[in-house]
Amino acid sequence: MPAALSTATGDVLRLLVLVAIGGGLMALGRWSSRLGGSSRPDSPPDAPSPDAKELQPELRPDAKRAPQVWPPGAEEIAASFPFDPLLGKIQIKKFFFEKVDAIPGPEDPDVFADELHVQLYDPDTDHGWWQSYFVATSQGLAGILRDKSWRYLYAPEMLVVPRYDLEEIRRAVVTRIRADHEFFKDKKEPEEESL
Predict the structure, then answer these.
(1) Are 91 and 143 in contact (CB under 8 A)?
(2) Among 29, 45, 116, 139, which one has the highest count of C-beta atoms within 10 angstroms of its own C-beta?
(3) DSSP string spanning 105-170?
(4) Domain for residue 150, yes or no?
(5) Chain segment 61-103, per-residue pLDDT in tens
(6) Is 69 within a domain?
(7) pLDDT digit string (tens) for 147-183?
(8) Which sign does the torsion angle of CA 67, 68, 69, 75 carry?
(9) 121 lies in which domain range?
């Protein structure tokens, strides 16, 4: 009986040593995995990773891949405008529409309606501000009224143009800035027709 008892105690000790070694290896594994990675994973562990082929647009076998061309940003559009002496030192810093890229513009220049945002800056006072205008063509306005089933449309800062032309829209914006900004109140303004 004493021999059986010592064998059972030895087995329990071996089992405890084996469990301790297993626990130590698990702790070592967790510690080492934290060394190379961040504490927060970038994506859940069960999230599928996209296949590189899925990220590429499909091409016909005989087609050549065209490079991706991005339209210019709001700062680039503003920087491309010529110096306008009517603005004096006032600078247009950003110029962009909410839905349509200013360049190349809408698919159909006769049907256009979008919100324009312009960031302005006066270097003399180090003051910057935003102006917004609703710019549209008559067909663009008619499309909005028809699509939304509205009886009327009200927009306090609206510019209606015959067709989308970025330079004409810029000129109209400059005229409105001169009319609305206190800096230009004492200066002679070019004549602008009103309704």
Answers:
(1) no
(2) 116
(3) --SSTTS-EEEEEEEEEETTTTEEEEEEEEEE-HHHHHHHHHHHT-S----SSEEE-SS--HHHHH
(4) yes
(5) 666 666 777 778 888 888 888 888 888 888 999 999 999 989 8
(6) no
(7) 999 998 888 889 999 999 999 999 999 999 888 876 6
(8) negative
(9) 74-184
